[in-house]
Amino acid sequence: MNLLLTNIKELLQVREPNIHKVSGSEMKELPTIKNAWLLVKDEKIADYGAMDNMPDIKAEETIDVSGKIVLPTWCDSHTHIVYAGNREQEFADRINGLSYEEIANRGGGILNSAKTLQETPEDDVYAQSAKRLEEVMKLGTGAVEIKSGYGLTEEAELKMLRVIKKLRENYDLPVKSTFLGAHAIPKEYKQDPNAYMDLVINEILPKVAQEGLAEYIDIFCEKGYFTLEDTHRLLSAAKEFGMKPKIHVNQFNAIGGVKAGVEHDALSVDHLEVMNDEDIDALKGSSTMPVALPSCSLFLSIPYTPARKILEQGLPLALATDFNPGSTPSGNMNLVVSLACIKMKMTPEEAINAATINGAYAMELSETHGSITRGKTANFIITKEIPSYTFLPYAFGTNSIDSVYINGKKI
Fold this sequence. Notes:
This protein is α/β, with parallel strands linked by helices. About 35% of the residues lie in helices and about 20% in strands.
């Protein structure tokens, strides 16, 4: 099927096919075409250009989008969309003065979600997760990574990963799967955390690999969770199964997790609310993508990733939601882009680059997603009539999306 969009006010993120990510000062540049047209053919972006030079095109459907902006769908490279229940009581507890760590120490937090998931039938977990996935697609997300990590037993972790696999099979957007068995230490292993790591590495990981349930490996490298030694052990073991690291680091403390990720050729290191010079130096010259999760900072009232420090050192940066029941119960990438501008002092151009082309890179999707490029998958957003693309992060409480297209089809 051929679809032609005409009179596009501005076509954003128009890139050549050899650009897979942008870094440092490059992130200030957002290539666009004003008063443009876009042709979709067989689920791919076939062609585009300025209206002044549009050839005679015979399309099965033509849509006049006068006054509207078109941009690639958001690429959300860090989520925990597969979970059961919610944790709104902990939200109230934090308002009443308890810290995230205090809630976790008394059996809340990740362990709370793990207990709920373990007790919830797989079909129910799928139904809840599918609803969340459909919600974020309507908000403009056209590619997503989903982690396990709320199981913390062999049976429950495999259950989560099977749900992720089913979501990938039943929905048209790319769904990347990450095994995060090392998300927290279960209560029964608190006195012997090494025994839990043995379980994850020797028992669960081989089954995940055998069943082809995950492309990536993750670990929460943080005080009170998993150590640098744990991180090196797990990432080394996962490498034997061809699983790349995408890891949680520097959320509350800088303990060397960034350097460990780079040493293991991590695709991304995520959170980065606390960064020191050693972390910045470790990322220089690497292929690892730093990923910021500003809606987590908003919800937990913790520091924001120091974007300016990262970008001024010539590094790239991606943005993602961290959608999960405890620290970020939102998968709204539009809010993430706004927060990046408001709280992290990123320009609208930098934030849009971080949420599209760099987000695609953090999921190994740069060849097919993240930009308006001939031959890439036709996943794009049509905005409502807005004055400029800066209005997207500026009007942070407004839904400026008119429609979302996945594989050239309106959802």
